[in-house]
Amino acid sequence: MSARFFKGLPTFVLYLSISLTAIASGASIDVLNLIDKKDNELSVLDGEQEPYVSVKEVSKLLSDRLPFENAARQKIVLYIGNQRIKISNSSSFVVVDDQVFQMSTHALVKYDDIYVPAESFFSILKQSILPGLDYDAAKKLLSLNLIEFNINGVVIEQKSNGTILRVNTSRQFSDGDISSFVNNNGWFYLTVREGIIDTSMIKKTDTRGVVTKITSNQFDESAQLAFRLRSDIIGHEVYQSSDPNAIVVTLRTPFKKLASHIKDMKKRWRLDTVVLDAGHGGKDPGTIGRKGTTEKDIVLDITKRVGSLLEENTHINVMYTREEDVFIPVWKRTKIANEANGKLFVSIHVNSNPNRSVRGFETYLLKPGKTDDAIEVASRENAVIRLEEGKARKKYNAMTGENLIMATMAQSMFMKESEDLAAYIQEELDQLLDSPNRGLKQAGFYVLIGASMPNVLVEAGFISNPNEERKLKSAAYRKKVAKGIYSGIMRFRKSREQALAEG
Ligand SMILES: [Zn+2]
After folding, report:
1. Which of 81, 164, 309, 419 is disulfide-compatible with 486, CB 3.0–4.6 A?
2. Pair (323, 275) in one structural domain
3. Residue 349 Cα, ligand 1 centroid: separation in angstroms?
4. Is the domain of 205 the same as that of 129?
């Protein structure tokens, strides 16, 4: 894109070439480059309701770098400016650097290329990295007013003795072009001569550490960043790094022992609320045994028994996602959990397998499924969303590829604890049940996705196995299962309290 670089403010760039804005006809999108006034076109996919454009063609138009294609995984990465744009077949998600955007419909692989819905893809590009791009869907006209930003965003990192600001740039500036100062009102200013700043990216900066707010301004000859500071700093340094290019600023704060912070953490970590989620319910029976035993009834009984044990023996507050035979949409289950400020989420299910000899208990974590068996269990448990109303179903995105990885990443902060909890539950069940321990497993479960707390899904046994169906029908056996889950939660609480006492 360097050829399209020009100095000064972008807004003046000639929107004059009106003669070229002829209405597009046929199967293509007209492209009007407002800088070099060359026009061009993008072909669109036949037979689709809305125009789909080729990702490779868009890349050729907007970048002089070739895209990276992974044909086997049906993914493509575009390099536009300093950013990577990832698109996967069958996914409606577009990942721009690490930000996720969603298109109106999913990408399609055709003719050795990936196609995306034009209107929403261009809108994502405009919002994220190319504010000078405008798509007129009615006229099928794409106008390009592309300038190259050289200040592309800020990443803030908090260290024990200060805050680091990394201002990402696409070139090196001379030291004389960079100036900085702290004013009396608690703002730190960084001014870069010849800087052209992507203010839309600056707005997205996550503030942390001593920085509470960021603003940016584009002037004729320079760009300025202003950082609002939470507290005094004892000094600052500015230097440039290369590979990748950045202006790095350190804001030094006095080092202090964070006693109040630790107290806060302890309060936040205290296991005061446990959310128990009995799977299925109402019009969704879950899996059904040969003798007619329904999963929804078995798991509600086990769940209530776990709750009673917690209520009788501890001061832990128990929150149920359902206490009766009612249908609760999957998304609502984690919403209930989060609103209750739960510290643990335990979803209780029983299993089924076409092979009637399969039996035993297993506990799942939310991670991409490793084995075919695990994926099979997850897709069966996830199938319930088909029973939800059409509108609500839109809340779910396919639990595959990128989506699942995103969900897992969001869960990673709880992952170690979820693993501990799952391991304790398995060990305790193993002590009590005369049934095979099938261990810890991982797969993508919708019901675990939204929970902002350590979470597991227990599959307490197979009602497809005649022996286990018989056992699960007995109250004495369900009592044992409940005892095992309860003891697992107790061990989890103990280990967390120990960790806090040591911390
Ligand atoms: Zn289930």
Report:
1. 309
2. yes
3. 4
4. no
How far is ligand 1, taken at its centre, from the CA of residue 57, in Å? 45
pLDDT digits (tens, 9 = 90+) for 148-186: 789 989 999 887 667 889 999 988 998 889 999 998 888
**How is residue 426 written in tokens?**
């398995």
Comparing 17-21, 29-33, 161-165, the range with the smallest average pLDDT is 17-21
Which domain covers residue 236, as residue numbers? 151-252
Distance of alpha carbon 152 from alpha carbon 202, whole angstroms: 7
Are residues 133 and 188 located together in one domain of the fold? no
Model-level pTM? 0.50
Question: CATH no. for residue 232?
Answer: 2.60.40.3500
Cα 205 from Cα 202, distance rounded (Å): 5
Q: Report the separation in Å between the CA atom of 415 and the middle of ligand 1, taken as the mean of its atom positions.
A: 22
Cα(486) to ligand 1 centroid in Å equals 19
What are the φ/ψ torsions at residue 485 (nearest 5 degrees)? Answer: -65, -45
**Least reliable range by pLDDT among 109-118, 131-140, 254-263:** 254-263
- The segment with the largest mean pLDDT, out of 18-22, 62-66, 162-166, 419-423, is 419-423
The rounded distance, in Å, linking the Cα atoms of 7 and 5 is 7
CB-based contact 322:278 (threshold 8 Å): yes
Give the model's pLDDT for residue 192. 95
CA 381 – ligand 1 centroid, Å: 5
Q: Give the per-residue pLDDT at 264.
A: 59
Looking at the fold, whether 184 and 113 belong to one and the same domain comes out as no
- Measure the CA–CA gap between 330 and 366, rounded to whole angstroms: 15
Tokens standing for 243? Answer: 């590979």
Q: Kindly report the average pLDDT of the chain as a whole number.
A: 83
- Examine the domain organization and report whether 233 and 335 are in the same domain: no
Q: How confident is the model at residue 268 (pLDDT cuts 50, 70, 90)?
A: low
Do 272 and 416 belong to one domain?
Answer: yes
Same domain, yes or no, for 208 and 350? no
Euclidean distance between CA atoms 120 and 87, whole angstroms:
13
The answer as to whether 258 is a domain residue is: no
Of 252, 278, 299, the domain-final residue: 252
pLDDT of residue 4: 36
87: domain CATH number is 3.30.457.10
By the 8 A CB rule, do 418 and 411 touch?
yes
Q: How far is the CA of 461 from the centre of ligand 1 (A)?
A: 11
DSSP 345-391: EEEEEEE--SSTT---EEEEEES---SHHHHHHHHHHHGGGGGS-HH
- For residue 351, the CA-to-ligand 1 centroid distance in Å is 6
Q: Which long-range contacts (CB under 8 A, 24 or more apart) does 6-9 make?
A: 6/35, 6/147, 7/194, 8/220, 9/218, 9/220
Contact call for residues 92 and 400 (beta carbons, < 8 A): no
Question: Same domain, yes or no, for 157 and 236?
Answer: yes
Domain boundary among 205, 229, 252: 252
What's the CATH code of the domain at 444? 3.40.630.40
